[in-house]
């Protein structure tokens, strides 16, 4: 399967602080790939590097074989990369419909002059096509009842769904989801998980997701990468990653198995075990 994303030994520093150190991985086209780890592990920093919000100190990021490491942030949507944010970034005074329409800004070919000539068939046709695509997204995410509601009046779970809709409106090849289920109740999480799976399977979008809910991650991900203190400590299928002792220690807080106490020979005092130092 072709690679949609290749991250080559990315490091990110803020002054003397290393947020990421030599992190590398690939994401296949059509894959649902999750990044997990404790708070401060570097998950959002990695998403920010891919989306262009941060520029890596070292390493390369390739998108469908194209080096995008130095591409500007506003160029990424045009290449086919969309994202949601950990903290909601909606226009709260605008309607749900208008928020989603904003997501199609890079697809608009009209300028100020042609926009003022809405009566022309070509201009009107393009506008109608954009609205048709937005209506499809509204139907897909069950937002019909809220399409004219002001975004700021919606519940937190619904606003998360609207932000996903806006990212979908970009028609991305790769969508980056930064904690899409944070702050949701169980029912909202189940709905969001279903939308993400359908987004991946029905729309064919490649998904890179950060999420703290281990149950959801293990249920819907094809592969999982674990970061700890900015380093990759595991990568693989969900069941293998969950069984990895380094992951259980770093992410789930489990302790190492205690070593058996040494048994002294008769007449001799027991000595502590000697640990190898590398």
Automatic annotation (TrEMBL):
It comes from the Bacteria. Keywords: ATP-binding, Nucleotide-binding, Transport. Residues 253-278 are annotated as: Disordered. One of its GO terms (molecular function) is ATP binding. This is Sulfate/thiosulfate import ATP-binding protein CysA. InterPro entries: AAA+_ATPase (IPR003593), ABC_AA/LPS_Transport (IPR051120), ABC_transporter-like_ATP-bd (IPR003439), BCA_ABC_TP_C (IPR032823), P-loop_NTPase (IPR027417). It comes from Methylobacterium isbiliense. Coiled coil: none annotated. The gene is cysA_3. Residues 260-270 have a biased composition (Low complexity). Residues 5-254 form the ABC transporter domain.
């Amino acid at each position: 399967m072709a690679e949609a994303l290749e991250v080559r030994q990315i490091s990110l520093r803020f002054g003397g602080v290393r947020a990421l150190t030599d992190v590398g991985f690939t994401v296949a086209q059509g894959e649902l790939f999750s990044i997990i780890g404790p708070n401060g592990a570097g998950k959002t920093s990695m998403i920010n590097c891919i989306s262009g919000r941060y520029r890596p100190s070292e390493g390369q990021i390739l998108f469908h074989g194209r080096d995008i490491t130095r591409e500007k942030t506003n160029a990424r949507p045009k290449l086919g990369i969309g994202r949601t944010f950990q903290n909601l970034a909606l226009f709260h005074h605008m309607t749900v419909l208008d928020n989603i329409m904003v997501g199609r800004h890079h697809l608009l070919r009209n300028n100020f002059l042609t926009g003022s000539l809405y009566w022309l068939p070509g201009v009107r046709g393009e506008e109608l096509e954009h609205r048709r695509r937005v209506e499809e997204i509204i139907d897909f995410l069950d937002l019909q009842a809220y399409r004219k509601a002001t975004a700021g009046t919606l519940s937190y779970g619904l606003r998360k769904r609207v932000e996903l809709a806006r990212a979908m409106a970009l028609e991305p090849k790769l969508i980056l989801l930064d904690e899409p289920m944070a702050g949701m109740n169980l029912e909202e999480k189940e709905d969001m998980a279903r939308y993400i799976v359908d987004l991946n399977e029905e729309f064919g979008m490649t998904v890179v997701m950060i999420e703290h809910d281990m149950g959801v991650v293990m249920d819907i991900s094809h592969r999982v990468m674990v970061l700890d203190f900015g380093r990759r400590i595991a990568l693989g299928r969900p069941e293998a990653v969950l069984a990895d002792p380094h992951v259980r220690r770093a992410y789930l807080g489990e302790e190492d198995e205690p070593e058996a106490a040494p048994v002294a020979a008769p007449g001799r005092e027991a000595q502590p075990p000697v640990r190898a130092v590398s």
